[in-house]
């Protein structure tokens, strides 16, 4: 059980407690986690900054990263195509800051958005245990992506790669909206050169949708586990709705 609580604007202790409580209510148990410890702790990402900083420095020193000063408005104006409504994927970065030579000697990442320089034209292929073989072209299907935010927060892509390797994760199960993230993370794993760690197997699930076919997200509070629980629904019924065998 890993608590991915990096975003200080969205992560609160009461949310983490509720998450663990709701999962226990559903009957889900784990052998390692923030509530019970384990060999690969700590299990809350907010406590693992030193690991992410070490990885950032390695990537920076090996020439994989560059600082980006583009604003959200700059990126929105440069986007050539709208995002797929079924993903939270970022638009392909146009490379505005890619050839910058300044600030690469910075000792700390704060103050700029640090991007991973993808190998343009390289095909990243992997076998998904649910959806079959998948292939994405770096620089076309996805561009240089964030690994550290200007507000001094490690990005999702970097944090999960560092933690998966450190915790010896062998299988990753997540939504199909994160297929491209797998390609990005495989590039990060290779760049970081984790000795003795093979990439995990990936299983990308079909997205859960409402009656109108719109994918469900965190903003749909009416269908959160906590809401269903408070409405009187049993754990068995919730698992049945989720297609639990």
Question: What does this protein structure show overall?
Answer:
With 245 residues, the chain is of the alpha+beta class. It is 29% helix and 14% strand. It has helices at residues 13-25, 49-61, 72-78, 156-166, 179-192, 225-230, 235-241; strands at 65-68, 113-116, 123-128, 132-137, 145-148, 171-175, 201-205. A 3-stranded antiparallel β-sheet has the order 1-2-5. Strand 6 (171-175), helix 5 (179-192) and strand 7 form a beta-alpha-beta unit. Helix 4 (156-166) packs across helix 5.
Q: Going across the major beta sheet, what is the strand order?
A: 1-2-5
CA-atom Rg in angstroms: 19 Å
Total strand segments: 7
Give the overall form. Answer: globular
CATH C-level name of the largest domain: Alpha Beta
Derived structural class: alpha+beta
Unreliable parts:
none
Beta-strand fraction estimate: 5-15%
Q: How many domains in all? A: 3
Distance between the termini: 21 Å
So, the CATH homologous superfamily of the largest domain?
Answer: HUPs
What's the average pLDDT?
Answer: 89
Features:
Rossmann fold; 245 residues; two-stranded antiparallel ribbon; 7 strands; three-stranded antiparallel β-sheet; 3 domains; alpha+beta; single chain
What secondary-structure arrangement, pairings included, does this model have?
Blueprint: H1 13-25, H2 49-61, E1 65-68, H3 72-78, E2 113-116, E3 123-128, E4 132-137, E5 145-148, H4 156-166, E6 171-175, H5 179-192, E7 201-205, H6 225-230, H7 235-241
Parallel strand pairs: 6-7
Antiparallel strand pairs: 1-2, 2-5, 3-4
Helix pairs in contact: 2-4, 4-5
Summarize this entry quickly.
This protein is an alpha+beta fold and 245 residues long. It is built from 7 helices and 7 strands.
């Amino acid at each position: 059980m890993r608590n991915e609580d990096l975003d200080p604007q969205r992560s609160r202790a009461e949310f983490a407690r509720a998450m663990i409580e709701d999962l226990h209510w559903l009957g889900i148990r784990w052998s390692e986690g923030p509530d019970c410890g384990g060999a690969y702790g700590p299990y809350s990402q907010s406590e693992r900054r030193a690991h992410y900083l070490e990885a950032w420095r390695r990537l920076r020193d090996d020439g994989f990263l560059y600082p980006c000063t583009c604003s959200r408005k700059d990126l929105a104006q440069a986007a050539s195509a709208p995002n797929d409504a079924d993903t939270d994927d970022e638009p392909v970065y146009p490379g505005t800051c890619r050839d910058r030579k300044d600030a690469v000697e910075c000792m700390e990442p704060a103050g700029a958005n640090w991007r991973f320089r993808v190998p343009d034209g390289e095909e990243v292929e992997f076998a998904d245990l649910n959806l079959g073989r998948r292939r994405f072209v770096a620089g076309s299907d996805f561009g240089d992506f964030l690994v550290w935010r200007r507000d001094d927060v490690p990005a999702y892509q970097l944090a999960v790669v560092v933690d998966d390797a450190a915790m010896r994760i062998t299988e990753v199960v997540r939504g199909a909206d994160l297929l491209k993230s797998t390609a990005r993370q495989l590039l990060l794993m290779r760049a970081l050169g984790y000795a003795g760690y093979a990439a995990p197997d990936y299983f990308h699930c079909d997205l859960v949708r409402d009656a109108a076919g719109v994918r469900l997200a965190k903003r749909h509070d009416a269908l959160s586990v906590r809401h269903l629980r408070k409405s009187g629904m049993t754990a068995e019924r919730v698992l049945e709705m989720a297609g639990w065998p």
